[in-house]
Amino acid sequence: MSITEITELGRRWVAAELQGDTDTLDELAVDDFTLVGPLGFLLDKKQWLDRYRSGQFVTDELDWHDVTVRRYGDTAVAIGIQQQRAAYRGRPSDGQFRVTQILVRQDDRWRLAGLHLSPIAPPPGA
């Protein structure tokens, strides 16, 4: 097991998101990749990539930190904090999110099977 491989995938993902590099994002994700957005919406791989291809989603800043990784055979779960400054269709999509990455080992390399973003907020009643 190499946690380094998984953290390197995270670095490549951040760079590709910042550059709108759909070729790299496509390579990093499995065919049936799913994103669960911070408001509960779902995007399949094509929808996720099309946001960049169309220019509708632009990421100006993205920081992925405080990441912990747990591995279960050919599956790994990485949980960290994503802080971003971005826009969707010209509207701010800024925020700080707790992100869960689901990764699978395929063809001797790690790939993203899913991303789940949750806004970071205090517990209810806090």
Architecture overview:
The chain is of the alpha+beta class and 126 residues long. It has one domain: Nuclear Transport Factor 2, Chain: A. 26% of the residues lie in helices and 52% in strands. The chain is built from 3 helices and 7 strands. It has helices spanning 3-19, 22-28, 45-53; strands spanning 29-36, 42-44, 57-72, 75-88, 91-92, 95-106, 109-119. Strands 1, 2, 3, 4, 5, 6 and 7 form a 7-stranded mixed beta sheet that branches. Helix 1 (3-19) packs antiparallel against helix 2 (22-28). The longest helix has 17 residues, at 3-19. The chain is globular, with a radius of gyration of 14 Å. The model has no long low-confidence stretch (mean pLDDT 94).
Question: What's the quick description here?
Answer:
The protein has 126 residues and is an alpha+beta fold. It has three helices and seven strands; from the N terminus they run H-H-E-E-H-E-E-E-E-E. The protein has one domain: Nuclear Transport Factor 2, Chain: A.
List the uncertain runs.
none
How many strands in all?
7
Specify the overall morphology.
globular
Main beta sheet: strand number and arrangement?
7 strands, mixed
Organism: Actinocatenispora thailandica
InterPro entries: DUF4440, NTF2-like_dom_sf
Protein name: DUF4440 domain-containing protein
Domain DUF4440: 6-112
